[in-house]
Write a structure and sequence with these properties.
alpha+beta, 6-stranded antiparallel β-sheet, 5-stranded antiparallel β-sheet, 192 residues
């Protein structure tokens, strides 16, 4: 017990001496050296605590044409185990029956692994997708017709036909709740 108390007293005195030595050293350093030390410490700690905005821009451009006006909603997931949510989506309206470009810009922390393209309509519609462009981390990936066949999966309410220059989609009403959509396959093999 006495040995423990004695060791504690020695450590306490050593701490006082160490603080005193450091204070003496600090007081004897000129202003220019102190300024350099502060700048160095600021440079070291700034990346750890400040300016830590990891948000990235993730852009999807959909080149398409529809036989009738429809809203097209794109969802993204940053993980395979994550569900699609409204806060990770944007809706754009396609009003014309001529070729159009719908651009969706997302602020993301992680590069998405999957996209889901919903066709928000109460009618059966036909669409032609010419291409899909994804821009992430200064990487631009364009999915043209020859790549589309292996790039998308369809739910049971969407039929897809691939021809030479377009993906033609037709939505089909079934006995289920009408929610036609397509999902991209693993984006990480294209964007990383």
């Amino acid at each position: 017990m006495y040995l423990f108390s004695f060791s504690f007293l020695i450590l306490k005195e050593f701490k006082k001496i160490l603080i005193s030595v450091c204070e003496d050293l600090w007081n004897n350093i000129n202003l220019k050296v102190k300024t350099n030390i502060y700048i160095f410490l600021l440079i070291i700690t700034l990346p750890l605590f400040g300016c830590n905005n990891k948000s990235k821009v993730f852009t999807v451009e959909l080149y398409l044409q529809s036989n009738s006006p429809t809203d097209i909603q794109i969802f993204y997931c940053a993980s395979y185990f994550e569900d699609y949510s409204e806060e990770n989506s944007h809706i754009k309206s396609l009003k014309e029956k001529k070729p159009s470009v719908l651009t969706y810009v997302f602020q993301v922390e992680k590069t998405p692994k999957r996209l889901r393209i919903d066709f928000n309509t109460s009618q059966e519609i036909s669409l032609e997708i010419d291409s899909l462009k994804i821009i992430s981390n200064n990487i631009e990936y364009i999915v043209k017709s020859e790549r589309m066949e292996g790039f998308f999966s369809f739910n049971s309410q969407v039929e897809g036909h691939f021809n030479d220059d377009k993906l033609t989609l037709k939505t089909i009403k079934t006995n289920e709740i009408y929610d036609p959509y397509i999902i991209t396959k693993n984006l990480s093999k294209y964007l990383y």
